[in-house]
Fold each of these.
Amino acid sequence: MSDETTVLIADDQALLRGSFRMLVDVSPGLRAVGEAAHGAEAVELATRLRPDVVLMDIRMPDMDGIEATRRICSADVDTKVLIVTTFDLDSYVYESLRAGASGFLLKDTPPRELLAAIQVIAAGDGLLSPTVTRRLIAEFARTPTAPPVGGRLGSLTKREREVLTLIARGLSNGELATHLFLSPTTVKTHIGRILAKLGARDRAQLVIAAYEGGLVAPPRR
């Protein structure tokens, strides 16, 4: 069984697809398995090839990257989606994450950071940079009223809600352990249980759940 992380590249610009593919293929531990020129093709290839990670553009013909992400992430596969786009707009960040994406990067991200992001996403961790997190919070700040905590969040214990709140505020596992005076192993156990109870794929989805469930309120401007 290979230890390589397989990557599918979806972008309507052939030059960018080729550049991303070269970057991936020369990186130890990564291997590009296909290219898609539009969203529908990305869905078809992701279903057939089952890559670990899809690098997904947003604006593409026939089907955009957000809809393609939604279809890939709703299928019964372990493929993760990393949005890589030139469009730095709040609505795209929010909709991409709601569709099931595990992270969001701009195309001017340095190559080293992009490659690291692929590995982070493949390992099952959501990639939310502080800038993206602030935009996500701002999006919720524009909504009239957050719904009360309930539904799926009602199944969480008091400690699990505490952990989820801190995750939504951007704390890493190490910071969680320090803040809550817990061992790293215990923190991972709590996060695993929260993921299972909420049916979330990764930390990015936990942040969405915390805000949409009203567990965390965005700051007032």
Amino acid sequence: MALEKTLNDDLKTAMKAHDKLALNVIRMIKASLTNERVKLGHDLTEDDELTVLSRELKQRKESRTEFADAGRQDLVDQLDAEIELVEKYAPKQLSEEEVQQIVEATATEVNASSMADFGKMMGAVMPKLKGKADGAIVNKAVKALLSK
């Protein structure tokens, strides 16, 4: 619930400052959190909130890539600003080196040695890195380790 209080405080600040971008992004995050709460039928846990924030970030990053490919720099710039705002509420992301260390430790734990163990590895490592690392980076690190 700390996230909700932070969002409400930031929403008030954005309203007073007439910051339309921040208002829109915060309202979208709050709407996503509300939708998730209704879908689950109970108050959100910290993990649930993290899932929603990760989804919001992923959607914006994917859209940013599509707009960049289409040459729409105006929309890319807007999404960059939105991504920056959403990242403010998400936990700090781990570097690729930190992800690699966790993947290597997990490989030892689950005795993964070949690409046949890919599913087992991803199943073991993703809960450890949930919200702390992009799934694509984790996927790449696991594939690199298992294909050695």
Amino acid sequence: MAVTSVLIYIVVILVTFILYAIKKNLNYWKDRGIPHEEPHFYHGNSRGFRDTKHSNLIFRECYNKFKNCGDPFFGFYLQSKPVAVITDLDLIKNVIIKDFNNFNDRYMFFNEKQDPLTAHLFNVDGEKWKPMRQKMTPTFTSGKMKYMFPTIKSVSDELSSAFDKTLSEDNNVEIVDLLARFTTDVIGTCAFGVECNSLKDPNAEFRRQGRILFTKLRHNFAPIRLFILTFPRLARKLGMRNIRDDTHDFFMKVVKDTVEYREKNNIQRNDFLNILIEMRKNNENGMGQMTIEEIASQTFLFFIAGFDTSSTTMSFALYELAHNQEIQEKLRKEINETLEKNNGEMTYEAMNEIAYLDQIISETLRKYAVLATLTRMTQENYKVPNTKHVIEKGVMVVIPVDAIHYDENIYPEPYKFDPDRFTEEKIKSRHPMTWLPFGDGPRNCIGLRFGKMQAKIGLISLLSKFKFSVCPKTEKVVALDPKPFILSPLNGVYLKVERV
């Protein structure tokens, strides 16, 4: 009986301590005089976060409420964790460029031991990030992009054939899946050196694994996903994992088998995997020899970044062009004129001459930023310039990219699709931090050239042959899947497709 009483006292003390700690955390911004939304005891300000509501909408609402509060940032709570959300463009520039050394960690979950595929360049922090970035940067030079162009162009021809085949059955087409199969084949060839053939076979293994990766999460219970997002380091200490076992095993096997075959037969290819194999051999920059798990994680990043970001960007672009026929016709005319000047062939140089295509992709990424927020974490206390405030060491910082892209003071009529926002003159007239789909500074998206090139080639191939318009299944506003970290259509995108 005495033992039971002692246990009850211990439980009561522990519960009391936990409740006290939570309550203290939830007073964090109030105690410091920072504007903030009153937090819920459990959810903080993140009710519905990546469960019923995509994070971009939650941060957009808060941004609109506090952007004119008189301070350059406002307080937010991910559950009980205090987060500083930056609204001032100059402070954003400080965080991601000028004072980068104090904000060089993204505060993302990774677990090298139990979940090695998560330990890639986008997630890792500390001393691992910088040398890895330096080693991988040569993969994405304009010279390497030009070398990969013919390979992607070849896959885009198969994309056109896949659309042709689909039209023989029905001209109301769900385009997201077709475009994801296109990017799967591109990434499989350029990153893994593997012919995926998912455009010919929608059930090909690479495509199936990509579908699983983004639609069948390891944790379907939203609070667990939010816990890993909010407390990534604690989640790592607890040995938690984010990647499904079957996905992990598939990618590890593909990489191991390919690396083993290339090393055994001394095969050299000018692709992403080859650079990682050379890094494994040379042990430069004091990084130590790359393990097969490290090679697999970087290749996995290339897959997830190129697979879903480019396909959704193309899907959203075609959705907007279907609603804006004049813009679509203007782009098609520019594409056809460029093709005529090059005897019907699209070259790397010719692709980059189509200025209006760049404007359309930029406007698409403004309305549909694949990453709705950028995250950083303070390494030391940071005195916010021209204020009395300090962002303390260990506080997570969020840059609300989507909310800035929808700020009507920056982009009038933000819900309108208008590529003319991105003429050279208009771009120069705005603060450089008003368009951040790829981030900026030392930790910007390393693969932005590749992603844009892949999207351009796919759109050129399709728009030169097909016309896109709305159909009865086209949503008036694309519903977003709240679960994935990146922006993704919940119900696909249906458009009417006709041969030109």
Amino acid sequence: MRVAVEADGGSRGNPGPAGYGSVVRSHPAGEVLVERYGALGVTTNNVAEYTGLVEGLRAALELGATEVDVRMDSKLVVEQMSGRWQIKNAGLRPLAASAAELVARFDKVTFEWIPRERNKAADALANRAMDEAAGKPVREVLAEDLVSPAAPASVFESGAPSSWAPPSLDNATRLILVRHGETQLTKQGRYSGRGDIPLSDEGEAQAMAAGGRVAGISRDVTAIVSSPLGRCTRTAELISAEVGGVPVTVVPDLIECDFGDWEGLTFAEVNDRWPTEMAAWLGSTAVAPPGGESFQAVAKRVGAALRTVLDSYPGGVVVLVSHVTPIKLILRDALAASDTFLHRLFLDAAGVSTLDIWPDGNIAVRSVNETSHLR
């Protein structure tokens, strides 16, 4: 059984009167299964946060859970339990050891940092514990606090942020994203989705230059994966020639968005003929062009494809050759950006972006849309 544990703790004074709160939810429905909270006397925020984690893990174990997704708004606890930060405070080590012992009793435990607004239930329980201990009027945990906050559909399973300190690359997978080289439609600024348009002569030269840039990033490329369309597979082949002939694997779900009736048209032409539909499309990733595919649908299939790729080449260097929409969606979620990002980021033909991804979902974006190799 897989569950989610949301945990928090706090103190009024740091150190001061403290309390913790933990909520165990079903996965993926988010139904509350167990709540735990308690006062801790006078101690620090960090001790309270670790206590919330320990109590949440104990509750999950008592329920018979085998997999746990831990979600906390404490960056310190998440980073320390993920092994990226050292535990320098001697007072926290016994609690961290207790948490680690509990973690070892599950088949799988992941740690994810979440914003405080997505941890309202655990926070409310911690405050309830402190209020009860102080004899203050107790604020009831509201129904909206107990609802698992919906996160935007993401191509990544976890939204864990990168450590502020330079993380070790020992078990990270390096993902090098390359947009295909120029085509005639690219040059004219036309929507180019499922149409199999070949590279132009300029696009061939750009793809070779992108191969040189990829080789500059890493000579030890593990795999090259590509959209099935010819403009991408040809770009991938030319990159392969620059990095020792690594085979190209076609991944169908890396294909571009289906723009439906807008295929081959410019933005101005679409806006002139479908102004209402264009406004709706720009305003929501759930809206598809007439006869086409929404960005939410693209994110779902690209996410599934990306997870398969990452599982297939753990710790390697993977070059992913695709189109504007899939690459933008990957970068949006890697940067924890809003949907507005999709319409503000420009990706050049044969532009290169690089990010590192750890097994626990931690992500470090190294570059976005590099184009110096094209000059």
